[in-house]
Amino acid sequence: MHTRVLIISMLLGLWAPTVAAQEVARCEYWIDDDYANRTVTGPQGNKVSLGIPLDGHAPGLHFFNFRAIADNGEAGNLMRTLFYLPEAPADGGVAYAESWFDDDYASRKFFKSDEHPVLSFDVSGLMPGLHFFNLHAVTKGNGQGNLFRTLFYLPEPEHTDIAGYEYWLDNDTANSVKADCGGSTLCLTVDVGGLAAGGHTFNFRAKNSFGQWGPTFTETFVMEELTGIDGIIADGKPFDVYNLAGMLVVKNATASDLKRLPSSIYIIGGRKVLVGSD
Fold first, then answer.
1. Vertex 158, ends 153 and 159: CA angle to 5°?
2. 3-state secondary structure at position 229
3. Which of 66, 84, 93, 104 is geometrically suited to a Cys-Cys bond with 79, CB 3.0 to 4.6 A?
4. How far is Cα 7 from Cα 14, in angstroms, rounded to an integer?
């Protein structure tokens, strides 16, 4: 035989008498308007946790009433909350309970009827935003009890979630390059050998572990045919070469150093230029 119990836990400070100098001497609670049969209990520090048997109450809507009483007899604020008592199962009792997120009933979790678990679920596979947690009991006759459904919110992760990226040149999305990756730092070497001289765009976007793509980052650059160091710097002095991420590639480079670099876009003298081997 299963005893149905209403579980209540609350902080006494929210319902204590308003006179700060008074201490809570006792608490009292009752169901619906049956104040004459109220239950009186002593305080339990700053909070009270109650387990109230409900087997003597009819199925349907009920009110739970609670208040704290000071040592001078002053009553605190009345807490009144509505709850629903369902019909007792008539086909052999509860066999198990099952729970699931949102509408993903196919991935539901099961709990035996003799278990009283503190439910803990892995929500790492859920996207940030609003979700539903669903729970109901199943009787031994395979009947389903009332559905309990509550809303909860998952915030955005504190750290950037990057699972992959994609990039393409100009408007050539058909030949974009896609790859999986992790972490928050990425250094790319892009083959631009097939581009004509002139202005171009480099386009990049990243996706998270849920497959959602972020905004597209677009950077313009100029393709220049380099016939010598004079095409970059006029005074012939050594210069530094950086990649598009701003990382130093070659310090105090010369024309011969440029010829040994992989074909790619570099920043030289504050300009984005193509450097290619002869």
1. 135
2. helix
3. 66
4. 18
